[in-house]
Amino acid sequence: METDRQLDTDIVVAGGGLAGATLALALARAIPSLRITVVEAFPLSADAGTESYQPSYDARSTALAWGSRLIFEELGLWGALARHATPIRHIHVSDRGRFGATRLNAAEHNQDALGYVVDNRWLGLSLMSALQTCDQVTWRAPAHVQGVSNVAGGVSVQVAEGDTARELRAQCVVIADGGRSGLREQLGFRVDTSRYGQQALIANVSTACSHEFTAYERFTDAGPMALLPHGGSDRPGYDSALVWTLADEALEQILAASDDERCQRLQQRFGWRLGRFTRIGQCHHYPLTLTTVDEVVRPGIVLIGNAAHTLHPVAGQGFNLALRGIMALVEQLQQARAQGENLGSLQALRAYQENHRQDWQNTVRFSDSLIQVFGLDFPAMKVARDAGLVGLDLLPGAKRWFARSAMGLGGRRPRFDTPLKESADD
Q1: CA angle (53, 55, 56) in 5-degree steps
Q2: What is the pLDDT of residues 69-98, one digit of tens each?
Q3: Which CATH number fits domain 4-193+289-406: 1.10.357.10, 3.30.565.10, 3.50.50.60, 2.40.160.20?
Q4: What is the pTM of this model?
């Protein structure tokens, strides 16, 4: 078996997006002696500093559950993220045109917020700023992983940087290159995909009435939609992040319409809880699928983030599930390192998979069942949905379960041998 001295690095992270960068930071915090190489397809920006950040109306954002805040606190990153995080203090779930509704309030759970909305760019800049203090993390960008093969003591990772090809030998490679992972396909991981037959339209919108830090989950006969409070934490605002589920034909009509017409169509679907929709920003869209990989580990190889699973966005569970998986992986690798075990050993990686499996399965079921149940349009199901929403609102036990799921507290909390919180907030 090869020794560490014969390796170029300990772990290669294929993909430096939000999942890959968070993993690199967590590994650097948990195992300071570890050598980590991140291979990222896009070049690092010359102005990739938090001081250069300017909030944009059209910025894409991510919903972070309360449990994800706890993770970022553990990584020493929450102090930075909180500067531009909009709290979700209330969640309102309803069935459009029906009487059933469920309301969650952070104060009922003795918390400041149920979750937060953070611009992706701010999240990325904050991660990069923290990683710049981690000498054990090396970036290769722009570059991409062309292939992975098993060798004695670990894996051989073929990396292309421009016209230059090189081999990196490591104990383990973590694939974090997104939901359309070419590397996952190349390596032959079995992917299960269910198509919802709809598209998600993502945009920021403004309304005449303040959102009062409320997130709305609205189920309609044409599909679910979500409005998340956006635009700052200092005062209630009038901007929200929209996730709108549309059939293909309806999406084409929306994209061809003027901004005023888009606001009118949105008004018809959402209603008047926030008054008139006064503005809609740049629209992005993508097809909706539930994608899972049942076996996410092999000797020396593990999938994380969207490479391992993609969920329907309306429930807001995807990145939060990825974060919990990342921390479970870090915990397992920390234990393996302490025991002198190879980080890419199948025993260690399978232990991670089993520790994370129940959280993964429960979150997938929770997210998918919301879409399936509210997608059924016959009268008996409508009555049952109304009864269920009212029951959730009235029964403390059911409401507590639903709140914990929404707050990302249903999974197992990793426990580390050493504190992870270091100097990122100091």
Answers
A1: 125
A2: 999 999 999 999 999 999 999 988 877 655
A3: 3.50.50.60
A4: 0.88
